[in-house]
Design goal:
alpha/beta, Alkaline Phosphatase, subunit A, Arylsulfatase, C-terminal domain, 8-stranded mixed β-sheet, 4-stranded antiparallel β-sheet
Amino acid sequence: MIKSPNLLIVYPDQMRGQALGFLGEEPVRTPHLDRFAAQSLVLPQAAASYPVCSPSRAMWMTGAYPWTSANAVTSNCNNRSAPYGCELPQDARCWSDVLHDQGYSLGYIGKWHLDAPYAPYVDCANNRGEVKWNEWCPPQRRHSFDHWYSYGTYDYHTRPLYWDMHATRHGFHYVDQWGPEHEADRAIEYLRNTGGQYRDAEQPFALVVGMNPPHMPYHLVPDEYVELYADLDLEALCRRPNIPPAGTEWGDYYRAQVRNYYAMVSGVDAQFGRILAALEAQGLAEDTIVLFTSDHGNCLGIHDRISKNNPYEESMRVPFLLRWPGQVAARQDDLLLSSVDIYPTLLDLMGLGGEIPAEVQGASYARLFQGIKMERPLSQLYLWMPFDQPTLGRRGLRTERYTYVENRMPGEPVSCELYDRDEGPYQMADIAGQRPQLVRELSEELARRLGEAGAEW
């Protein structure tokens, strides 16, 4: 029997899968991730099925789709979706609950965003507009994480707020430090575990570090990372046809923000490097599965879209790098991994496949991770749904070559879109009208997959 491995997940928000230096797709500097990739299984085609914060996080935590009772997070958790029960159910059996029952110590540091805000709202900047976002997570809703240093969603990265283990709802505190740097400090303390104050040193641990950057607002990033991109030739960078031209709203937005976005990615990379160094210094690297991934990507103005929540590659593709020395060989694989697959794959990889609950809808690819041939998925689901009409919205498939989407938007005619990413990698040409037979085939496959997953569509 392999010793029960530790698990470390670093989970930045809104980091698109293209923003990794070693892939050569964008001029972003990620030296620590580049080195880590050389030691890891890298899945460049991993994708967020519902590329927006709360739904993606809920799928990762539950291994189930949003329309199920095991998940219930059909949209971002805020005061508008709260009346519809949009939050992670307290009785959901998350992967963290399974590990707790196997004797693991569990820690969560950083962004959570799986609780519905309620009145009277917590008095903080993210709750002073019309939409309220941030909420305390009470102990009974923490899904077995016994070390807690977190917040719901709070976007002032240079002065973040946190609730610690024993804080009351109004007992949060502010920190005058860039969020990812502070969270890396706390993660390092957890790994060092001086005096056993953070975890049981005799038991394996699982630690999540949920960094908010590279989430907007992009200017809230230390100058040392911005300076890395001072000489970036913006117009050379903006020659991709899906980046709107200068002089347009979203073309100018992209040009104004991309340096800071890259700066945030480089800052996250630096803090990830510090955490890895601490893991090594504590002699834990050989016995720890380390996963670096994100909840979704970000268009940043590409396709005239401010951010995510759309079927474009910049939104759907996410980083996925997993290292387990001696157990998972370093390589790249084009596996079409989806959000719901992370839970069962990790537990199975850790020797706990028999503990995966029946309500988990994702598939385990642990055998493939370990170099054993197995059936591979042919597609990934794409989802978007209005919280008040969850059987409407958008559903689609992302295959190795095509992105197909059906639109059933409230008050609009039913339509579909089809993109051939081999012929048009920038998704500029909707070819649905030119390929009726392919549309029929993909529509039938989408209906089959949704039906198997219990979705009304």
